[in-house]
Amino acid sequence: MILNCVAYEHGHKLADIGTGDIAHWLARPDAFVWVALLDPSAEELAQMQREFGLHELAVEDALKGHQRPKIEEYGDMVFVVMHLVEPHDDELLVGEVAVFVGKNFVLSARRRSERGFLGVRERCEREPLLLERGAGFVLYALMDAVVDRYFPIIELFEAELEGIEEKIFLPGSARGNIERLYDLKHSTSVLRHAAAPLLEMLGKLHGGRVPAAFVSTQEYFRDVHDHLARINGSIDTIRDTIGTAIQVNLSMVAIEESETTKRLAAWAAIFAVSTAMAGIWGMNFEVMPELKWRYGYPAALGAIVFAALLLYRRFRKVGWL
Amino acid sequence: MILNCVAYEHGHKLADIGTGDIAHWLARPDAFVWVALLDPSAEELAQMQREFGLHELAVEDALKGHQRPKIEEYGDMVFVVMHLVEPHDDELLVGEVAVFVGKNFVLSARRRSERGFLGVRERCEREPLLLERGAGFVLYALMDAVVDRYFPIIELFEAELEGIEEKIFLPGSARGNIERLYDLKHSTSVLRHAAAPLLEMLGKLHGGRVPAAFVSTQEYFRDVHDHLARINGSIDTIRDTIGTAIQVNLSMVAIEESETTKRLAAWAAIFAVSTAMAGIWGMNFEVMPELKWRYGYPAALGAIVFAALLLYRRFRKVGWL
Amino acid sequence: MILNCVAYEHGHKLADIGTGDIAHWLARPDAFVWVALLDPSAEELAQMQREFGLHELAVEDALKGHQRPKIEEYGDMVFVVMHLVEPHDDELLVGEVAVFVGKNFVLSARRRSERGFLGVRERCEREPLLLERGAGFVLYALMDAVVDRYFPIIELFEAELEGIEEKIFLPGSARGNIERLYDLKHSTSVLRHAAAPLLEMLGKLHGGRVPAAFVSTQEYFRDVHDHLARINGSIDTIRDTIGTAIQVNLSMVAIEESETTKRLAAWAAIFAVSTAMAGIWGMNFEVMPELKWRYGYPAALGAIVFAALLLYRRFRKVGWL
Amino acid sequence: MILNCVAYEHGHKLADIGTGDIAHWLARPDAFVWVALLDPSAEELAQMQREFGLHELAVEDALKGHQRPKIEEYGDMVFVVMHLVEPHDDELLVGEVAVFVGKNFVLSARRRSERGFLGVRERCEREPLLLERGAGFVLYALMDAVVDRYFPIIELFEAELEGIEEKIFLPGSARGNIERLYDLKHSTSVLRHAAAPLLEMLGKLHGGRVPAAFVSTQEYFRDVHDHLARINGSIDTIRDTIGTAIQVNLSMVAIEESETTKRLAAWAAIFAVSTAMAGIWGMNFEVMPELKWRYGYPAALGAIVFAALLLYRRFRKVGWL
Amino acid sequence: MILNCVAYEHGHKLADIGTGDIAHWLARPDAFVWVALLDPSAEELAQMQREFGLHELAVEDALKGHQRPKIEEYGDMVFVVMHLVEPHDDELLVGEVAVFVGKNFVLSARRRSERGFLGVRERCEREPLLLERGAGFVLYALMDAVVDRYFPIIELFEAELEGIEEKIFLPGSARGNIERLYDLKHSTSVLRHAAAPLLEMLGKLHGGRVPAAFVSTQEYFRDVHDHLARINGSIDTIRDTIGTAIQVNLSMVAIEESETTKRLAAWAAIFAVSTAMAGIWGMNFEVMPELKWRYGYPAALGAIVFAALLLYRRFRKVGWL
């Protein structure tokens, strides 16, 4: 589906145009065309390929989807794939946007994503001075929007991690913690797959040797690079903390287990002593003088209770109870 | 065994030729020859060495097999070894294909593999415009086919991992999980040995300085590079997840153990109290008034049951039972 | 808030100036202006942007705060973000200082930090020979001050780690140790985020190719680089030691648990033997000759005590008690 | 001890020569001299130093032994140290061979090794076309022989690892497994110390910038490089697998422990119930009607057995027994 | 304190000179001056700074001490900091030596160290041919001496590790092992901090681009580099082995624990059966025919013993006892 197809000149919108008129507008020296597709069909992409002269491998990637994020040069053209990560009921949905950027056109094709880039277009149109820089600036604006949407997800992760950390030293919560830690690790993998390859490849658009269309926007892409580096750093820290938390959780289980064993041992000892003493006075020897005593029974009970209390205090002191 | 020996010109098949005629066809300026061998004998390889002027070290590698995947230049010629990974009854079979690529010939030698590349040849012959690019494109087509066959194996791994993950927090499944995780790790090693060295060496065929025969197909090899990077990324994620899962599994065993110990402790305590009380009333003191009471026995039973229930409720509340 | 706004020439302070006069002083060939802001508002930054011709992206970073430490070049200007890490009641507060350095000006904007850089300015003014080197030297002085404040935090960490290590082999302290180790790991992350990106980027100000304003201060920045490398090395060692300590702590829990189990087993055995013996002499067989013996009872007690002692000594010997 | 001292020309052996004649033969433009020493004394090395003009640091290394494998250039000369790893009764013996290679000589000094390189010399002499390439080819032949001897050791490791893996999920074998895994890790370290530094340094003899004497043998050294890369890959995989196996082994111990605890808990419960019931009917209350019943005793036994069976079935069902 | 102050020419000692005469001797074209300081005061260093024209940052580093090992160039001068690691009663003392090397002088300042470099000076003076190479060679001699003193420390570590390994599979030694492993890890960190940064920076004195004063001694510094690489390799292996040993130790604790639990379970079962049987015959039913039997008691004892033996043999067989 074609969402928008607009021609711009000197940073200003000229007109919404039909796809058939693209060639006409591309011919104007200072104009550029910005087309946005949503879940494009093979036919639509084939048409765009003809209009803009796109490379077949890039078109195939945009059509098949499920690509790794990447920035590739095909001659004058730059082809960018980014992951769109959207939280949705405790899960992260991963969509994709493929962007073809030429000297005088930008074509974006979005897939499996609910949230569009209309706001990006509007913001660009409000700043003609920047938009005047052309297709490179549009790519920056799109990329900046995609990357900015990663930050709230990092915050989700950090909130979840803090939630787990609050309970990590709480007895009896080990099972829940470990499940949540495992799920969180999974989620961080999703975002890392979105951010890390992009970071790695972004050097192509700033720094050393960049394509002509991006020379004047280098500092903007460095800014995106910087954001991605921050996101990657946060993910690494979260993942490292998860690793430590899993270890700590295991330690806490072992410590709890150890305390249970001690308590068990202590009570077992107390009752074992009581039972052994009762057993002794339950023996059937004929000559057991204390059995004949008037206060033998209360004395025996007293002895048993005394022994139990003695042990109890002892165990208390060493911290087993 | 020689599977095919075909001469091509301008992207079109000229003829199936005999191995004796190879020299004749190689002499034609625009023709190239594509030979496919299966489990070649030393003699067959020696003959090919003479026809195409192959380097002895490359021939030796193709003959001995069990090589690491690699891409090597011998003067004008490029020598490529790839692993063929085929799932077979819960196991992965690893075959090999060695490809010699010269200016005007391609020679592939397949070993220990059930699935051939006939489909690749047919697809190439249906696209003369691409095949016209010559030997470099044929190498791409073969490489692309090999790498594409790695994807279903990644999916197998992911399915297996998901199967394990569904049971990882299930009490009593730890033993099975750990065995499956260990086996899965083994399997990922096999695929990693196939994909990682290839990825590392593929930079020789695109990007900076590439051999003359591959200049026009650079973008295709970058595409293969991209696929391999995706495969490597997936393997790394799977292996990382396996590591975490093994740790989590150990935690679950410890948690279960801890719960068993608590339950054991609780029941032991309940019966220890009962036994101790019964033991006390089983003592043989002469003066134990309650033994003479009419309802002493039911009262004693009641006391024992009451004590047991009290403990039971207590343990329930703290979650030990 | 504007803290200071001073013009310097040939290493000497000329005057406290108003922000309106900045342009006037910048016009003097050998003068430079050093402005210090605290928690600057958007308006103040906008004014500075106009006065000094700052890049919008850099200004935006300084305004939003929460940046990753970085050193970026915008044309002639260098933009630096550093984290200020200040210990505060068992916690580390992280502030930020953004520094814009041009050929003839330095503008620093500090946020969320209690401790200022007045001392740095005073020390610079006392050494005109160094201050004469201009804006580059001022940046060095600020950076040196920031980095020097990291060292006491490293010492805090090392003291805390030593405190934990003293108790790590002490029975019964596992729970406290693991909590402290986990918290310490968190704290080291904070400092690492401050120091590591700076170290990585400092190469831009010394070594190979440095901006013109920093050529004469290269050796000073290398010195800062060296300090940061030392800090990073210390953090890495602390983190590595924390990892080992967590493992060792788990081992200690397991060892303690093992010892408790042995002790439990030993006492359980001693009382089980006593109870079993008492139970036997409590059986109601008619013909049990020893029950009739005059000293049967003391003999039985003796036998029980003897058996218990025997076991006790045995367990002592093997180290279970 | 001098094993051999032979002069070659155009790939053919000229004569066994005395050490005194070396200078004479070195003077012939196309000849080269190949000397092999075993456990050389300081005097022998000093003599060789004079004959061939060896660098004192290299001679010192060859004399002292216990070097790290390395490839060093001293002006025109290349100095190579390789480890010889020989299996010997469950242990790996590590010998050393130092090789000095000049434009027209090869001097090898072997230490602490049982197996010589006579076979290498014979094979070289049988292939004059290759030997004609001179000292560089001889170095390749020696290096290839050394590296080829690492492969059977890898196979030993893999066999040992498979042997352990067969028992890793077998109850009761944890102690033996962990000892064998620890020993195997040690052994892999030995081979890694032999192979890894060599791999790292081999780039000096092929690829970019190589010494004059090695230009024509580049492809041979790349082949050795490839073998070493394969060996290193195998070692890494084995070490990684050992790491996982140690973790898995620990998990298996924990799982077994958990099962033992459950079984213990189950039997303890069954007997605790029996004992408690018997204790109740052993109480001495006067009014306990069931004690008077004719079939009270068998009924009581029946009740006890019934309760025990009930529990037994219950535990069976939940898998504790 | 000034230990020595000597002028050399053409590799020969000219005279012990006073610090006031340094400038005089530096003026002679072929002479160089070698000064050794021990725990120098601020005044002494200030004097040296004036004599030799040292850079203030380097002097500050030498004065403050507690630097990271490093090799820095200040114009013509090279400034080197090395750690001196000396074993002292189970601990490692870390001293420091700072060396300033100029075209015609060497100044070494040693701190917190007991063992001097007098031997190095003497050895240098005995070899005029080498000493003739000037200041660069003196630096090599000092560095070589420092690094050579690391080797016995590695041997200490290896001996300690072997001592632990001998006991690692010994039941009951887990606590001691883990303490010793933890301490050993600490010690290796100390040496690593001494060796690793030096190794990393030594590339500045050999290989690519080296300062003029070090061109003729490149091969010597490469030799030091090689020694440091060996030391680093050994440390890495030791640390890796410690990691594995800690894991193995934990496994051994778990295995021992598991065996204790089994043994405990077995004995508990044996006594529980005895007690239950005795309890049954201790019940007070009126009709219990076997109680009336003449040999009922011995028969009961026999039954109990028989049951116990049966269990004992059973447990023996499955390896629990």
From TrEMBL, chains A, B, C, D, E:
One of its GO terms (molecular function) is magnesium ion transmembrane transporter activity. GO terms for cellular component: plasma membrane. Pfam families: CorA. The keyword Cell membrane applies. It catalyses: Mg(2+)(in) = Mg(2+)(out). InterPro entries: CorA_cytoplasmic_dom (IPR045861), CorA_TM1_TM2 (IPR045863), Mg/Co-transport_prot_CorA (IPR004488), MgTranspt_CorA/ZnTranspt_ZntB (IPR002523). It is found in: Cell membrane; Membrane. It is a multi-pass membrane protein. Coiled coil: none annotated. The chain crosses the membrane at residues 264-283, 295-312. Keywords: Cell membrane, Ion transport, Magnesium, Membrane, Transmembrane, Transmembrane helix, Transport. SUPFAM superfamilies: CorA soluble domain-like, Magnesium transport protein CorA, transmembrane region. Belongs to the CorA metal ion transporter (MIT) (TC 1.A.35) family. PANTHER family: CORA FAMILY METAL ION TRANSPORTER (EUROFUNG). Mediates influx of magnesium ions. Alternates between open and closed states. Activated by low cytoplasmic Mg(2+) levels. Inactive when cytoplasmic Mg(2+) levels are high. NCBIfam families: corA (TIGR00383). This is Magnesium transport protein CorA. It comes from Simplicispira suum. The gene is corA.
